[in-house]
Amino acid sequence: MRTALITLGLLFAASGALPAQDTADPFDDAVQKAVTHGRYAVRRAAAGKLARAGDDAVPAMRRYVDAHGLDAIPLELVDALAQSDVRGPEIEALLTEWAGNRRFFWRSQALGGLARRGVEGARPMFEAAIGDPSHLFRIEGARGLLTVATDDEEATARVRARLGDDDPRVRLRVALLLLERGDGGGARQIGEAVFGAARTFLDDRWGAREATLAVRELQRIAGLDVAAILGDDLDAAAEARAVATAWVQGAAPDYEPPAAQQEEPPPLLGVEVRSCRNGDLFLSVFADGRVAAGLDPRVVVEVDDLSRLVPGDALDGVATHGAIICDFVRVYVSPTPGEPPRAHHKAAPGSVPGPVLEWLKMLAATLDETGIGEPLTVRLGQFATSDD
Where does the pLDDT of residue 179 fall: very low under 50, low under 70, confident under 90, or very high at 90 and above? Predict the structure, then answer.
């Protein structure tokens, strides 16, 4: 039998008819599953396989991007690559390209992958990222700079400066990055988050997410168990509050946690812009004529004629416009507290309805008179066309 098989093989070789070898890249299938599979668990598992493969999986990912475009790459895949500790020149080059592409939705996550790996060659990118319009990019720039410039006081000082960032999400994460390195200089900012769970923007309780993160990381990094602050047991919450206050005051003796305050009436209307390129924007307009800029507003101005800002009934209705992947603009009008909004629109770039876009332009022009309209004007350029 063995002789017959050998003879058959020789005949195939002589005739040039040897069976073809399967040269398909086994990672092509993993990329396909990571991007398109209908089940989240399968997508995550495939993304994990690619992340663990490192350099070996890069050609398959590049082929997919060449065929389908970079926008087809989902957050789950980029996040898996970023969280992996697998190093290699090809995977690091891929992450560098993605992080450097301002059009890519998940560029901040790609930069985070370079930061966690401590890629020395990415230091110029980390330094530039510290001042990027995107709050996520600033955070990852700080992470990367702290990782690759551990003994550079000037670089560390640039990171510490972000403790004064306008965005409270940046302030907290930079404080936690420093704390993990034994630097308690951001204790005040951590306290700001721990005691700020009640902060909201329109219908979003973003302060609760920040408080949960701060409490969890205090436990992990500093061994401080103050989770009861977020619970319903008032006595336990009071004890945890005292512990957290003492911890913050150990680094910032003049710190006092905010006293419980009555919630002010919700805004009459609000505008939210999320943009990986131009950064996020939050505007709240209150019935008394105040306009606040920011999640945790540091800039509040007043307008004389509030009626100019309130949209007419052409905006009434609730709808989502276009395919929202990451970036979007949202308009929320709720003249009666506690009642559903009379207008609530969320739109992808290039999909903003004409009446909504015209009203946003009018709002930006009106706010130009107060000095806070330009950031909205800048961001509207991204949403006026589908090319950006």
Answer: very high
